[in-house]
Write a structure and sequence with these properties.
The protein is mostly helical. It has one domain: Cytochrome Bc1 Complex, Chain C. 75% of the residues lie in helices and 0% in strands. The chain has nine helices and no strands.
């Protein structure tokens, strides 16, 4: 029965055929472990999406309820502690793998022609991940979240010319709910767009060769 169902699905979706076609793609001889950090980063991004989607159903984006909702999620919901810790430590691990990926690309000079757009989209994506980390740290709205907000807005205020122009609107219009919307909606849309473009460019130009 299951075999017939699998054959029916495969005939219409062609999933096995797609997997076999991808597995059959040639891999250059010079590719080693350090070339895998882009794929590792993408895998972590997918895990962040899954764990974050799970947490959305329990998090309450209100200052008086945010931290308590996370405590309830971690202590009372089945596997809630696992999802939260995977999401929390995944963000740190993602920054580390992206930095390694950027260093590897820079070392192999893969940012040069014709891969300038690969490099630019990757660097912007790294900045987006950094904003993910900041807004995610703010969401629990405990003492750590408060000081993260204070430290980063003070840092923005040190920027020449535009620092004070940006600092005060950030503080004036800040709320936990707005940070929540930025974290789960605006940044994911930007990240998905950049990832799609980045992969298109990688597919177009292929894996860079050795020096």
């Amino acid at each position: 029965m299951f075999a017939k169902l699998a054959d029916w699905f495969e005939e219409r979706a062609g999933f096995k055929e797609w997997v076999n076609r991808k597995r059959g793609l040639p891999i250059p001889d010079h590719v080693n472990f350090f070339y895998c950090f882009g794929g590792i980063s993408f895998t972590i991004i997918l895990l962040q999406f899954i764990t974050g989607l799970f947490m959305i159903f329990f998090y309450i984006p209100k200052p008086e309820e945010a931290f308590n909702s996370i405590l309830r999620f971690s202590n009372e919901v089945t596997l809630g502690w696992l999802m939260r810790n995977m999401h929390r430590w995944g963000s740190t691990l993602l920054v580390a793998t992206l930095i390694t990926h950027i260093i590897t690309v820079f070392y192999h000079k893969a940012y040069q022609r014709p891969r300038e757009l690969n490099w630019l989209s990757g660097v912007i994506l790294f900045l987006v991940v950094f904003f993910f980390s900041i807004t995610g740290t703010i969401l629990p709205w405990n003492w750590r979240s408060y000081w993260v907000l204070v430290i980063w807005t003070d840092y923005v205020g040190t920027w020449p010319v535009i620092g004070n122009v940006l600092k005060w609107p950030i503080l004036e219009y800040f709320s936990v709910s707005r940070s929540f919307v930025i974290h789960i909606l605006i940044l994911p849309i930007i990240a998905a767009t950049l990832l799609f473009f980045h992969f298109k460019m990688v597919k177009r130009h292929g894996i860079s060769g050795p020096l």
